[in-house]
Amino acid sequence: LILQGLKDFDLNEPSVKISLDNIKLIAVSFKDVVPKYKEVCQFFNNQLDKLIKSTNQLISSNQFTQVAEVMTKVHRSLSLLGEHLDFSEIDKGYKSVSYSLLNHLKKISNVDLILKKEKVEENDVLKLKEAVSILESAKDTVELRDHLRIEEIKAINDSLVLKIVNYFESINNKVGELFRNEGENSFKEIEMLVKDMDAIRTIPGIDS
């Protein structure tokens, strides 16, 4: 009955802590209550574990606001119910979400294969735009700032933009070399390179 009554409550409701505190107090005098108390605590441990695991799908689909909401709920639960939970395991799970999110963003920023090409195709530019857009979205998700340093996300975003700018500059330098070395004979090739530069300019954050 104790478990049935509590499991319908939200993890962050103060009444849950009050109930668990009371059950723990009763268990001191009535040993037969101890198994029930442990059962209730395990139920909430499992609920938090499910919440933490739910972030895997949220991260992979770039739902950063929802990731932050889960992290907030877990963090509040640790603060509120810490003495009744497997604190170290839940805390480790909470911190792993930050690691997974940053690792996901780093993978998105890895566009080296595209930028090694001599010529970017339309689909390449779309992929670069998507990568920049996703990182900008993560950087602009204010709720995440309660759980990880915004500087870490900004550094990943800035690194990506810098890679694209450097690629743009390499094309620009190639145009100059072609014109100096081959003059009018290089106009057709230069025209193609300029088109690539124009396409890259459409990527947000690329102001060259």
Structural account:
The chain is an all-alpha fold. It is 76% helix and 0% strand. The protein contains nine helices and no strands. It has helices at residues 2-6, 14-29, 34-60, 64-81, 87-109, 112-115, 122-139, 150-182, 187-201. The protein is rod-shaped.
First CA to last CA: what distance?
67 Å
Give the class from helix and strand content and strand pairing.
Answer: mainly alpha
Shape: rod-shaped
Which oligomeric form is depicted? single chain
Indicate the radius of gyration in whole angstroms. 26 Å
Q: Got a strand count?
A: 0
Helical amount: over 70%
**Arithmetic mean pLDDT:** 90
Determine the number of helices (DSSP H or I, runs of at least 4 residues). Answer: 9
Percentage of residues in DSSP E strands: under 5%
Stretches where pLDDT is under 50 for at least 5 consecutive residues are: none
Largest sheet: none
Order of helices and strands: HHHHHHHHH
